[in-house]
Amino acid sequence: MGRSRESKGAILEELKDSLAGSQLAMVIDYQGLTVAEISALRGKLRPTGTICKVTKNTLMRLAIGDDQEWKPMTELLSGTSAFLLVKDDIGGAFKAYQEFKKESKKTEFRGGVMQGQLLTEDQIKSIADLPPKEVLLAQAAGAINTIATKLARSINEVPSSVARGVNEVPASLGRVVQAIASKEAA
């Protein structure tokens, strides 16, 4: 006997909430995996803030609805699908899945969706290889700090240059007067 309409509604709401809190969704074919293997995958993903949802494609299609951010995922909905919904650590989640895939040799990566874009495995790998957000923020702050320091040095150099120029005027004037006097004497 199938699920009741109420339980499907609850599952649908849970899927919508999970999608709303995710920044990336990866779709894999889990055919051939045992319950223990799926549990192992979930265990590997949990520390990265990723949840693994195994649900019918029709329920996921309903959860996506008209949401343009997730609409491209409908192209990946066929066969036995598991959905890896990444909330925080894209790099960690992708690496955890790759490690699981290497160990089990049973899953197939279909694709991913991020910000309304359908992504291939290579594209997600490129995103996963980026430094963590904290490192990128530190690099940006360092670059801004460098610019501010150089600007401060340049601004401090202006009065010094003006002062050197003002100090040079009397000496130059003295040399000019001596040159004129020497010319008149000659």
TrEMBL record:
Gene Ontology molecular function, alphabetical: large ribosomal subunit rRNA binding; structural constituent of ribosome
Gene3D superfamilies: 3.30.70.1730, 6.10.250.290
GO cellular component term of the entry, any: large ribosomal subunit
UniProt keyword terms in alphabetical order: Ribonucleoprotein, Ribosomal protein, RNA-binding, rRNA-binding
Pfam families in the record: Ribosomal_L10
Lineage top rank: taxon: Bacteria
SUPFAM superfamilies assigned to the protein according to its UniProt record, in alphabetical order: Ribosomal protein L10-like (SSF160369)
Family: Belongs to the universal ribosomal protein uL10 family.
Quaternary state and interactors: Part of the ribosomal stalk of the 50S ribosomal subunit. The N-terminus interacts with L11 and the large rRNA to form the base of the stalk. The C-terminus forms an elongated spine to which L12 dimers bind in a sequential fashion forming a multimeric L10(L12)X complex.
Purpose of the protein: Forms part of the ribosomal stalk, playing a central role in the interaction of the ribosome with GTP-bound translation factors.
Protein name: Large ribosomal subunit protein uL10
The organism of origin for this protein: Pannus brasiliensis CCIBt3594
Lineage, highest ranks first: Bacteria, Bacillati, Cyanobacteriota, Cyanophyceae, Oscillatoriophycideae
Chain's gene name: rplJ
